[in-house]
Amino acid sequence: MNPIFSFVFPFREGGEFRCMRNFADVDAASEWCASLLTEGEFCYFAEIPSRTYVFDPVKDAHHAVSMEGDGWRVLEVVD
């Protein structure tokens, strides 16, 4: 079974959208979340141990992906 990744998509107006999905690896997870972003938006995500785990980008190590004019990029990997 593929690892579980948790995603947090913050809204510019406040609030956020959260979801979980299985992907083969971090690259596949990055590509998927980047495909949902429009220019200037970003997403935090991390591999999580189970579907009951609540990912907190403030406390947990994670990746951040941004959509820029020339495509998407991983902004950082926070430990």
The end-to-end distance, rounded to whole angstroms, is 25 Å
| Number of helical regions | 1
Biggest pleated sheet: 5 strands, antiparallel
Overall average residue pLDDT: 90
Strand order of the largest sheet: 2-1-3-4-5
Please provide the count of β strands. 5
C-alpha-based Rg, rounded: 12 Å
Q: What would you call the structural class?
A: mainly beta
Low-pLDDT parts are none
- The helicity comes to 10-25%
Percent strand: over 45%
Overall geometry = globular
Total discrete domains: 1
Secondary-structure element string:
EEHEEE
Features:
79 residues; mainly beta; 5-stranded antiparallel sheet; globular
Outline of this structure?
The protein has 79 residues and is mainly beta.
Task: Describe the fold and architecture.
With 79 residues, the chain is mainly β. It is 13% helix and 46% strand. Strands 2-1-3-4-5 form a five-stranded antiparallel β-sheet, with helices on one face. β4 and β5 form a beta hairpin. The longest helix is centred in the middle third of the chain and has 10 residues. The protein is globular.
